[in-house]
Structure formats: C-alpha cells, structure tokens
C-alpha cells in the first residue's frame, strides 16, 4: 500500500424528498445564489419549481444560468464567472448531472481567480479559493457530486481537460433516487458505464498489497452490476436506483483509490473522443475500456484474473490464466451490450481518420497511464482495438 | 435503504513516516497545544520525542496531560478541560489509541461548554462548539480517529457512556502502520475484535435493500479476517498492519452504516462489563458478540445465513438455514479463539452475580437494540449465554 492523504468533507444528504433541504444548507453561505442547470428536464419534472420555491422561502435572490450541455463548455464557464462577479453572487446551486456540476465547479474556482480559469486545466496555475457549491444530483454517473475533479471542454481546439483538487468538492450534495426515475434507459446505462469505469480505473493497478480497496472496489462493481438490469426493467425501482446512486458517489469520491496507483487511460482517451465527436461520455467509455483492457492485461494478468473471478464469478482456469482474464473482459463487454451500450467505435460512427490526432492530443499536456505508461502509439493501438 | 446524512471531513494522512506531519497540520489552529497521551509506551518507542521535536520546530508551546487509562475516565477529562481553560490552549494532539482519542474528544467539547461535560453523555445537552483535535493513532481498534463517537467512564457509579455527534470528528488523523509493530498480540487481537464489532453492529439490520453497504461490510470483514493471522505471526508485516489499520477507520467512520438501522447492543453490554470489571474492550466484545448473535439470529435468519456465506465461506445448507447461520457464529468464535481472545465470561473471571445490575444500567438512559429492541431481561439472557 502506498502512502496517501484522503479527505472528502462533502456532506451527503440521501433519500426521498431530500431536495427540499438545499436552500437551508446554502443559507450559511449568503443570500445570492447562482442556480445552474441544463435543459428543460428539471422544469418538466417539477424539480425546478420546487427548488426555486424553497430558495425563495429562505429569502434567496436567484440568478439563473441554464443550458449546460453534455461535455460542458468553457464559454459557459466564462459566462458564469462574469455573472457571479457582476452580481456579487455568494454561492452556486448546481441542479443536474455531472456536466452541470463540473460547469459549476469551474465557475466556483474561476470567480476568485484573476487569470483565465483555463489555466487550472492545463496545469498553468492551481486554484487557491472557491465560492461555495451545493448540488442536487439528477443523474448518477460522474461522481462529481463528491469528487475532487471537474472536466471542461475548450471549444477552441476541442480540448477536454480535467482539474483535480480537493478544494472543488461540493459543500453538500443531495441525492434523491426518485429524481432518477425519469432518466431514459440509454442515459442510465451511460451513467453505469461511467461509474464502473471510475472503479476499474482504480482497480487495475500494479501497486501490491491493496486488499481492502480491492475488496471495496469489487463490492461496488458487483452492486452496480446486480442492480442495473433491475432499473432497466423497472425505472421506478427505488431500491435499485438508490444502490446505483450511492455506488456512483463511492466510486469516485477517492476512497477506492487510497494507497494505490490509478490508471486513467480509458477516461483520457474517451475525453478525446467526446471532445471531438460529442458522444455520450459513458458510451465512449463502454467502447474504450474493454479495448484498453485487451491491450494491457498481459502486464498484470493476475489482477485481471482476480477481476474475472471476484467481479464476474468466472471460474479460474489454472492452466490458462490469460483465458480467465479474457473471459472477464468479455463479460464486461457482454454486460455493456446487454444494457444497450455500444462496444465498438463503429457503432458510434467514429472513423479511424483522426486516431493519430486524438492520440497526440491525449499525451500533449501530461503523461498518462499507470498500469502501463502510454505513448501516442499505444493510444492509436487501443483505438484500433476499439474499431 | 433508509434516508441518511453522511459527512466525514476528517483528513486521513496514511503511511510510513507520516507522524512528522502532525505539527504542520495543527499550525492553522494556534500555537498552544495540549499533548494528550497514555503511559510510557510512546516514550519507549521514540514517538514521544519525535512528536515533541516537530511541535517545537513549529514553535508550539506544549502542555502535557498523560496517563489516560483504557476505558478513559471522566476525572481526567475534567482535568484536561481545566488545563485548557487556564492556559488558553488552542488545540489538542492526541497520541495513542481509542482511549486517548476519546478522552481528547471529551476535553475538546468540554472546554467551550459552560455546564458539566457529562451532560453530553447522558443526553442532557448537545455540544455546539469544540476546540480542534488532531490524532496520531497507535492502535487500530476503536475507529475513533475518524468517528463521530466518544466513550467515557464516570467513576461515580462506573457508568460508561457514549456521545455521538459529527462535531467531535478529529480535524485530521495520522495513521502510520509502523507505529503498530510493537503492539502486544493480545492488544492487536482486541483491536481486531473491536473493528469487526463495528462492522457487524452495522451489518446485522432489518433494513431491507442495503446491498452496497452489505458488500462493503463483507469486504472490510474479510480483509481483517485475512490479515489478522499474518500480523499475529509477524507483527512487523507492514502490509498486513496497513490493511487492518485502514479497515479500522472505514469500519467506524459511518460509511458502512449509511441507509440502515444499526444495532449496538453488544457494544452497550460490553460497556457495562468493562465499566465494572475494567476488562479490555475488545476482549469483552469477543465474549458478548457471539452470545448476542445466538440470542437474536432467529429474528432474521437470512441475514445470518448471508453473513455465514459471504464472510466465512460457509456452504449454505438449504434445508436447514439455521444450521448455516449457527455455523457462521461458530466460525467467528473459532476465529476469536485462534487469535487468543476469550469467548466466555468465565475466561475473564466475571461471575454472574451482577448480571441484573448491569442489565438495568444498560437500558437506564436510552433504549438499546435495532435488530431486536432489548429489555433488561434480554440482556441478562445474553449474559447467561456468554457465561
């Protein structure tokens, strides 16, 4: 086990009807709030009017910034920063999924910073202050509701880049599984792929003696795998929605990566794909992750055997560990297919003509990989395996 | 899954050599520190002089309060509160195991309170302020390093009572597994029993649909069960010590109890035993827990079958679930015995003459039990099963 520091102070408020508590939780931070959200879905569901009412009941002055898109854009972050400064806004309430939360996080670090907020995403500067952020989560997927990360797409060159720092964890996040009843099956499935990727990018490591976190990772994966078909069958199954929602937070609050080297290659490759082609992040992951696994499993075949056995109940073939490892990868692909996700680039209509460009961008700012350090050639190879 | 709120902001600093960071972590809170510890073991190990040096290097004025006993006493808490007030002490550094940390927590809430700190332990008042507390952990057991609980013994009547409130979580806790190398085997084993009890008192619940936390509990228990024989054999096995130490924190920081009713009967009964007989808490738990299990397993036999299967790999006897459940309980007893713990009151030289008195005290201030609500008669029955 490696030395580590872990701190996740985000307050989780979980369960039925909990969205009513947002205004009260924000109260200590001021009385001018930026309400940040995506499209019309929260209006259609009635969540918008509930939230506005509870904010007004607590005497908040509300400023709205809506229209956050999947793969949230830097231009809207700039807009949010400008609005917060002009109106002296005290705090942000993000109502939505990972895109809305990430956009809100970027605004939150951008407001007190004198330079260009994009500096934080290309390693040119590190944030030192933030305005307080609360969350009402409507889509379990990115884990952004309690994570220290935030991913923004810069339209100028379509760079999709992340920022990781404890400072940007939300003050509180409200998780009501009922709010996820109306998610379309494809979005639910994409969320599941993202949750599983967050766990697996921590699980596949060369760090020895990480038993507790191995077991916790397997526990989280198994819970998600078991409950996903239940919600695909019955989107209003509270208990299964709740398991997936809480798993989504645990998957990415940092606990499962304590004491181990992680490997975020698949996420990084997917960011290039969705940066250019604007595909759903989870769909991209369902394509890239198995390809990455096939490319690297021989480096630590025992770990892939353990994964096959402990996550997918594959019987170990002692005379052929590689076959066992491959069977584990196959089960993952089958699972993704079974919940309606693509597992090839072809299904996403992504041609091979820009593989080289994406590979170059992928390794441009920071080195990537853990289990295996990646060159741009490796990335092209993985993309070819994903065709 | 029940609605819940969960927040554990304690910063965990884990690994080799991390004790050097304590002074720097305390720095933001002031320059007068109460150094709180137990007996001479931290002096013998050299930890004391390392810590004092690093505090002096950061210009701290150090006030010492040592001599904390197992089952920490209210009288010393009073002493600590008096000292902190007289010297205008800014913060506390607890160096030791659960007793030292709990004593420090009680001092920390006592200092800003005008009344008697014991009020908090009998439900007469709730704390509203605290002075900051940092921890260097030397014994993985109570989980107090990140928990919201604290247990103190009032010598006037030998009442052992707990306080549970998020406010008392330490600001940071330093966990270096190397500091546990010198723990005697019996103390290591007692710590393990305490860790396992913290998980099991959350695991045995009637709350339906708690799959994620079930799996996380099983993961934690299995890790502890696997690594304990390793450290009994080789006390200087860093990796096994690390697994147990991190599991001890996870077991009791609240995560594993999210969304479920818990049942703290065994801990409560043990508090009566160690309150009167001053036995090691973990040894008392090793005796009480299996007895409690035998008394209640029929109430939710499926859960005890799941425990036998998922924690101890007991093969399910479909025609006789009760036999499977009992086999799980037997495995736990065997495990405790194998690491040198008692499993009967007789081994602790505790006679039956005060069972009734303990049972009365146990239910005196607050109702106890979750899986089954306990009367004083139930407590006597459990103690009889533990004879």
Describe this structure in words.
The structure is a homodimer of 387-residue chains. Chain A is α/β, with parallel strands linked by helices and 387 residues long. The first copy, chain A, has helices at 22-26, 41-44, 47-57, 74-87, 98-110, 185-203, 211-233, 238-252, 265-277, 281-296, 301-312, 321-338, 355-362, 376-385; strands at residues 4-14, 32-37, 61-65, 91-96, 133-137, 149-154, 159-164, 172-175. In chain A, helix 4 (74-87) crosses helix 5. The first copy, chain A, is globular, with a radius of gyration of 20 Å. Chain A starts with a strand and ends with a helix. The model of chain A has no long low-confidence stretch (mean pLDDT 96). At the A-B interface, strand 1, helix 7 and helix 8 of A face strand 1, helix 7 and helix 8 of B. Strand 1 of chain A pairs antiparallel with strand 1 of chain B, so a sheet runs across the interface.
Count of DSSP E strands of chain A?
8
User: Uncertain regions of chain A: pLDDT < 50 for 5+ in a row?
Assistant: none
- Which protein chains are joined by the largest interface, and how many residues does each one contribute? A-B, 40 and 40 residues
- Overall radius of gyration of chain A: 20 Å
Oligomerization state: homodimer
The helix count of chain A comes to 14
Q: Average pLDDT of chain A, to the nearest integer?
A: 96
Q: What count of structural domains of chain A?
A: 2
For the record, the CATH architecture of the largest domain in chain A stands as Up-down Bundle
Report strand % of chain A: 5-15%
Fraction of helical residues of chain A: 40-55%
